Task: structure prediction
Amino acid sequence: MARINENFQKLPGSYLFSEVGKRRRAFIDAHPDADVISLGIGDVTLPLTPSAIEALHRGTDEMSRPETFRGYGPEQGYAFLREAIAKADFGERGVRIDPDEIFIGDGAKSDTGNIGDIFDLDNKVAVCDPVYPVYVDTNAMAGRAGNYDPSTGRWDGLIYIPGTAENGFVPGIRDIPVGSTPDIIYLCFPNNPTGTVAGKEELKEWVDYAISNRAVILFDAAYEAYITDPLIPHSIYEIPGADECAIEFRSFSKNAGFTGLRCSYTVIPKRLKVGGTSLNSLWNRRHSTKFNGTPYIVQLAAASVYTPEGKAETRGLVEYYLENAKIIREGLKEAGFGVWGGVNSPYIWLKTPGGMSSWDFFDYMLNSLSIVGTPGSGFGPSGEGYFRLTGFGSRENTLRAVERIKKL
Ligand code: PLP
Result:
């Protein structure tokens, strides 16, 4: 008799975005003339760059001719892309990463979600709270999170490291709950949802902790392109020793607008070993068994990001969203809100006024201003009392939304 993976039964419904959509639809049904602006989206809105479009056309033409047609490619990704990444994203920052330490994927969501395959179920997993929900749900699916308690919003098998106003939403090792020692630690900087970044000192503490506790850091740098402060590391490998204890995830979604095209990469240094076994070899085995490679034309488009024109165009996209984030951040500050993020990140994290709950503030923003954001409590218990806005909208809508907020 077939049996299902019972862990899936333990998952709460994907409450956050479905509830946001439900309340938004109900509002529009009741107020059909309302001019609703969404600053809640985590998806990009600008089209692909001319360089990426040219690469896609070129790749499509190659696919149309027998002499340049390509079928299955290397599962790890084409050398032209892995080499471009190694040189531009790491070499030019003084970090040595070899192309065969880079695995091209179809998104940081799948990469961060699938990496758990190579780790034993008995590992103790730590996440920062609030958190990008994929780390939590994929560990729950694997059976590594224990049971979910709806009254606390927590899984009893996970270690939650709280991000709070006190630690500036940059959780550090001092915030690990007393008596817990994680084996696997998910870190995400620049952070979704709080928009905060970790400096060299903060990352060094994590790396030193991981080395001394023989833990592995899973470092999600999907928003790396948004770092503008020259003192903030773009990669965990800028910290000495990180190549012995950390895996890094990057994405072309938020820098080059590939959310619909799909391309990402995972870095697993060959020096990273667990119990004497190379994680690079394990992931290579897993990746080549379960994944047949990112489409050739998509990899060509990803490689276009590293050409001089592509770099400038990609920078233009990021700067557009960063300017939106700045407009939101400054508007909120002017309106008297406590605000984090929005400088090295497209995300702005704000304290709800007057001690309102995240969902009460969501309703208030929707009903009084026709603005949709994302309740912080949807990202974990420590997000209660906070709210996320994003710079991914159009400039026009961003400016209009901020004017409404200022008139509150
Ligand atoms: N990691 C974080 C922190 C994200 O916020 C997102 C998307 O919103 C992803 C990963 C997924 O990115 P991708 O489009 O590459 O799957």
